[in-house]
Amino acid sequence: MKLWMALVLVGGLLLGVSSSAGAAPGAAELRGVERTQDGARFRFDEVSDSTWYYVWVNESGKAILKRWYKAEDCSCDGSECSIDYDHDFDDDKDYVVFVKTYSGRGHGPWSQAHEFDLSAPRLHWVDALQFVGTDAVVTALDAPDGMPSGLAISKGAGASAPIVEQGIGSSHTPLAGVRLCYEATGPDARIAELSLHQLSGTADDSTELVKDTTVRDSVQPECIDLLLDDPIDPTQGPVRLRVGLGLDGTDSVVLLSLAVLKGKPGAEYGKKVKICKVPPGNPSAAHTIFVAAPAVPAHLAKGSYLGDCR
Predict the structure, then answer these.
(1) I need a surface site. Which of 68, 150, 173, 182 has the fewest CB within 10 A?
(2) pTM value > 0.70
(3) How confident is the model at residue 38 (pLDDT cuts 50, 70, 90)?
């Protein structure tokens, strides 16, 4: 069988297409879009035989990104890949992303169109966990490379419901909430309460901003979003996260990471609603977005639902 090679110019990149046996790679469907500090991260399926991925992003109908990425530059982990794109995304514009695969055997199909909305608050991960509590024993856990991997919270003498707290820093950017990731080491440990407080003087002179008494006892890593109805100004006083625990035996709760959700001046995040957007005919591409309240009925009528994707 004769083999031949053609050079094809696609998206400004000269790619070789061979006639050798084998099919072109399959589709790489989008898994999600996350806001980063400088733009967005696009997550999509890793296709084992794809050597390149072409990412196309439209902003209100106009292409802002059309670029080929080598597979080895896409942070692939055996299941999914991701690329970061620095751009000042506008909360008032519509965005759509597509991904196309390629190998020496030809071009794969385009992914389904994935609409996304980055008007949710930005996540800023806290560098170090510094939770303290008078009725709790706090033990730092080290990862294999020697870096801290979390704080194990166990009960002190005679205390089955210790409380630990951490300040979440000051900033001129409105505060929209926090994200806390944790795991329980066994069935006798749980998070019983989360709350945010803003101090106006001493520790006894504070305002409770939000409180969640949902019991969390996952023995697998899980993240919790504690959101404010409206962003607050952190310059008006230090803000602290308070975590109430339930510890009945020797099990403990491991706090893994903490992020601050920051809004923008003038952004009315409290008036936006979290929904799981389910693309018609493609439920596996469901993703969480925040939309203005008047737009919720239209999304629900198309199969989307309120809250996080399940």
Answers:
(1) 68
(2) no
(3) confident
